[in-house]
Every structure is written in C-alpha cells, then in structure tokens.
Design a protein that fits this description.
Blueprint (H helix, E strand, L loop, with lengths): L2 H95 L1
Length: 98
C-alpha cells in the first residue's frame, strides 16, 4: 500500500466518523428539544392543577367559619327556645287570669 491509499482510507474513515458523530449529535439535540417540550407541558399542567385546587386549601378556613356560624346559630336557637317558652308561660298565665 502506498501512502496515497492510506491517506484516502484515513480521509474516508474520518468522514464516516464525523458523519456518525454529527448524526448522534442531531439525535441528542432533537431528543433534548422533545424533553423540553414535554417539561413545558408538565409545567403548564402543574400550574393549572395548582390553580384549580387552591380553593381546596381555602376550605379549611371555610370549615372553621362554618363551625363558628353553627355555634352561633345553635346559641340563637337555644335563646329563641327560651323566649318561646317564657312567652308561652306568659300567655298561659294571662289566659288563666282573664
């Protein structure tokens, strides 16, 4: 083999290696872009989920307020029952005395 043939084979081998490396780099870049697109989709979905579930976290405060309202309503109902009983007694007393 002469030096020209070796040189030609070396250039062909280098060209093949460069083409393979270029193909692999292109595949890596395309895969990275797909991963980035999927990550953006996941991020958007996560933000939507967070926006849709924020009211669930607020239910704790709502439940506390509703409990306070219930206690107040029960107290009012008790007092109203006492007033009703007193008015009934007064009515009975006035009716008997008349």
């Amino acid at each position: 083999m002469d030096s020209m043939t070796i040189w030609t084979y070396s250039l062909v081998a280098a060209t093949v290696v460069i083409l393979i490396v270029a193909a692999l780099l292109i595949a890596i870049v395309l895969t990275a872009r797909k991963i980035d697109e999927h990550a953006k989709d996941i991020w958007q979905a996560g933000k939507q989920i967070a926006g849709n579930t924020v009211s669930i976290w607020m239910l704790k405060d709502t439940n506390i307020v509703a409990g306070d309202i219930l206690k107040t309503a029960e107290s009012i109902a008790g007092v109203a029952g006492e007033i009703n009983g007193k008015l009934t007694n007064l009515s009975n007393t006035l009716t008997k005395g008349a």
